[in-house]
Amino acid sequence: MVVSVESERINKDTILCISLAGRPGNHGTRFHNFLYRELGLNYVYKAFATQDVKAALGGVRALGIRGCSISMPFKGVCIPFLEEMDPSAAAIQAVNTIVNDGGRLRGYNTDYIAVLRLLESNTVDPRSVFALLGSGGMAKAVACALRDAGFRAGRIIARNEAAGRSLARACGYEWQPKLESIRPSILVNATPIGMAGSPNAAELAFTPELIHAADTIFDVVAHPSETPLIRQARKDGKQVITGAEVIAIQALEQFVLYTAVRPAEEQVKRAAAYARE
Predict the structure, then answer these.
(1) What is the C-alpha radius of gyration for the chain, rounded to an integer number of angstroms?
(2) pTM as predicted
(3) Which of 12, 54, 75, 140 is flagged as catalytic?
(4) What CATH number did the domain enclosing 252 receive?
(5) Domain span holding position 168
(6) Among 64, 121, 206, 259, which is 20 to 30 Å from 241 by CA?
């Protein structure tokens, strides 16, 4: 019988972290486990699919699972099952990270942290007009990060009028169902358009005309890292911010919350590259 190095490493003291999603991917599993091995930490990370987030979080609490990443469609519906909310999640009312401290589950939003950091590091001008496509959990994180970075002129573009108006009102922006004749200088996609495996995987989130008129294109879709929107933006010579950058930063902040260890920058780069393979 062949026994893997990974299985030999796991023992009764191994700390488990997981992710919960409707359609789980491998990025978190590869990113976190790479760093656990790199840093010699007795942790293991496993992705799970579920349709019952209440029962799944009951298991997190009962089994002493240390950390839990939350993906679509559970970023909002998980909130009633938590004991505490960090300000990063409470202001947005969307959770992407849960930390279990002795049976008390606390929700965070590291997506918000990642977006805010990327807006700053790319020196995106807060005086610019933006359009944000989407009104779900990730769109909430982006909208709140834009607001807190000082962006005052923006529109939330969402077909779901109730969710779109609610998000726009919460952040001080306008809502409309489509862009029509507006030509914002910043375009942000926070929908699954362009995501690998989605029905819209080959589509552009914005028209070529809108992309050509913009200065900065920000696509939060992480898989693939080069979405149709990002490819078109690069072709047009636009500044781009990718979902691959978002997912690497948010995963790092999750890692720190779970382990209280902050890896070196070079280690994070290698973990992110390994996760994309």
Answers:
(1) 19
(2) 0.88
(3) 75
(4) 3.40.50.10860
(5) 112-241
(6) 259
